[in-house]
Amino acid sequence: MRPLFTVHAGEFLVGEFIEKSYPTLNVWIPAKDTGIDLLVTNMKASTMVSLQVKLSRDYKPPEASSDFDRTLVAAGWLTLSHDKIATSSADYWVFVLVSHERKMLPQFIVIPPEELLKRLMAIHGQSKIYHFYPWVTKSSVALDGRGLLKSDKKKLADGSLLLGDRDISIFLGNWGALKDMI
Questions:
Q1: Could you tell me which of 58, 37, 62, 70 has the C-alpha nearest to residue 135?
Q2: Which long-range contacts (CB under 8 A, 24 or more apart) does 18-22 make?
């Protein structure tokens, strides 16, 4: 075991959020890299949830220039490996989106890896690497925005876009597994 390790910014933000929001739960950092970044247990350590954390800075322009840009709270971009998602031992993948707007809190998308992979494949087909654009709107809609046309973005801004498999809103702030441990 290596005596030194680093906690990445996304892992820190998730751990801090969990400790503040669920003070009766414990957050653990594994001693070696196994594809699990954080373990969360109840006080007796009799139940556990494992998390893989991915952080994206905001790729949304700081100055909104269109109705679409004004709709977004955060717009991330990550590259994800099909094999890593498919073989993940984590219960949930947590995508942390940090916005340019300093008054906005980080956005957390908490999704089981099987569901993430199913949706990515439905939207983009099977690929070795997926370019994932997690977007969150001011109306709390979360989606994979990769590949949306300009006309789709206009519809997203006015609320008329049918998202289908792109809609990951039910996973926005989805900490239900942690609530069940209390």
A1: 58
A2: 18/175, 18/178, 21/175, 21/178, 22/175, 22/178, 22/179, 22/181, 22/182
Q: Which amino acid makes up residue 108?
A: F
Residues 18-34 have pLDDT tens digits of 999 999 999 999 988 89
Confidence band of 60 (pLDDT split at 50, 70, 90) = confident
Q: Which amino acid is at 74?
A: A
SS3 sequence of 80-109:
EEHHHHHCCCCCEEEEEEECCCCCCCCEEE
42 contacts: CB under 8 Å, gap ≥ 6 = 24, 25, 26, 181, 182
Residue 55: C-alpha distances to residues 35, 37, 46, 132 (Å): 15, 12, 29, 12
**Closest by CA position to 175, among listed 90, 78, 49:** 49
Burial class (CB in 10 A: 0-12, 13-18, 19+), 141: buried
Strands 129-132 and 92-98 turn out to be unpaired
